[in-house]
Amino acid sequence: MDSSDDNKAEHSACQNIDTSSVQQTSSTHDDVTQKDDVTSSMTSQESDSGGGSPTNSADNISTSNTATVNTELKQPIQESQPRESVDFKVIYNKKKFEVNFELDSTIADFKKHVETLTGVPFSMQKLMFKGLAKDHETLRTLKVTKGSKFMVVGSTINDVLAVSSVIPKEVQKEEDAATTSKESFCNQKVHKKVLDKYGKPEDALPGIQNKKVPLPQVPLTGMYNKAGGKVRLTFKLEVDQLWIGTKERTEKIQMNSIKAVVSEPLEGKEEYHMMGIQLGPTEASRYWIYWVPAQYVDSIKDSILGKWQLF
Hints:
Blueprint: H1 2-48, H2 54-79, E1 85-92, E2 95-102, H3 107-118, E3 126-128, E4 149-153, H4 157-164, H5 168-180, H6 189-198, E5 220-225, E6 230-236, E7 241-245, E8 250-254, E9 260-266, E10 269-278, E11 286-293, H7 297-305
Parallel strand pairs: 1-4
Antiparallel strand pairs: 1-2, 3-4, 5-6, 5-11, 6-7, 7-8, 9-10, 10-11
């Protein structure tokens, strides 16, 4: 009896041990399965997000940074693209210069380039393009297009020096004579005779004393010369010419060939002047005009002698 009971107890204990072992094995298997599931899930997520491994992720970051750098490097290249320019001509003293210049450049910038082409100093230049071009304007605002023409008006330093040194002995004699004679122009016999003979022209323009007015767009009329012939003055700034017109003919004179311009108010009629335009090296070459409206005298001198201003 005792032996039988012992065998049963031993058999029961073995069963318990086997059951526990099976449970432990099952539990271990479940843990491994769960770990595999987790690993599989992580792998799937990394695959879905485009990164299969830490190396791949680093490569993606590096690629992204490289793309950003490349984008930043491309932008300055776009900014350094050449500006829009135009081909046109510059004309000075019958010489033509082919020019290419940026459309957004100002006339002031362009004058510096013109000085290198013509030798005319910046401050002595007038640039004519459909009228007088102002320093603050640009080629674009002036609507300069391919084939357009700019006229340059002005004298080089050499021209100015040449004029100042023409026949110095004769000039000195005339200056000495003028210093000795204090008589005004209108009281000199030759001019007094003209003024007394012809008087004031019926078509004389109104004169204004002590005032400076820009030159009109039309010729100045209502004046006469020493012979009493009617005179009109036309200022062709675009070709640097003064046109002196009479009934018989019109003389077209290059302004840079005019040596001097003198004037004096008429006695008792100070709103008008008599004016001498010196066409040669001596005073004897002066072309005299009478009854010039006083308000235009300074503008006439400025236009002819190159001392210009923005009107």
